[in-house]
Amino acid sequence: MERSSIRGLRAFALASLFAMGAWADPAAPQASGFLGVGLRASPAGLVVESVSPGSPAEQAGLQAGDVIVRARALPPGSVDAFTTSVRVTAPGSVYPLELRRGGALRAVNVTVGALPERGAGPRVGALAPALGPSTVASGHDPVDLARLRGRVVLLDFWASWCGPCRMMMPVLNTLAARYEAQGLTVLGVTDDPVSTARSVGARMGIHYTLASSPQSVAGYRVESLPTLVIIDRRGVVREVSVGTDDPRALDATVARLLGEPAAP
After folding, report:
1. Active site residue 165
2. Which position among 110, 165, 175, 206 bears the catalytic label?
3. Catalytic residue list contains 249
């Protein structure tokens, strides 16, 4: 069944590239602060999964693999709680962290930045926004919607730390194998580093194209993972869904769109 609006399963929101404030609930107070790291929770603290190039976190020297054990002299709490703490911090303020790196503790003061502007995002019934600069981690398809016009495209926004994302990947792998010759292209887009995306793809036996593209994640206003955007042969967004999808319903949607002509 085709949905006409974005569905709101938000179980894994706020923990991607701009986890420190860029992805906020529209109903929440206006966001301001931004660090620019991707995080996952662990018993030891919040593990830094990725650091956005040029971000306040990178400028302060944070690295993937660091573990945040204290924030403002207190335990950092959950990813969501830490995100909220940074969001309500004014840009230009100093945000002190205590990190564990390689068994040693170190104090780091991060100067909070302002949230980057987000793109307009996909709208059902409108042309799909262009993807940003991307680096292919595995696969052979172009990460360029203009070059894919005439094919049905499944854009899967995912992350290595996201359990539901890994649940969806075999489903997408099956669809890619079944329908590629009929005109389907599946693109898995993440803000994880290329090496991480490549490792996950190899471990899970993914045959469709995986790419690292933080700008695409930002431009598509991805707030929860996984987010699946289905684009028809004309380049029009037909469906946006969040969370794991019913494989049979997804298969039926793909088959129907493949049966449509490419011409308007």
Report:
1. yes
2. 165
3. no
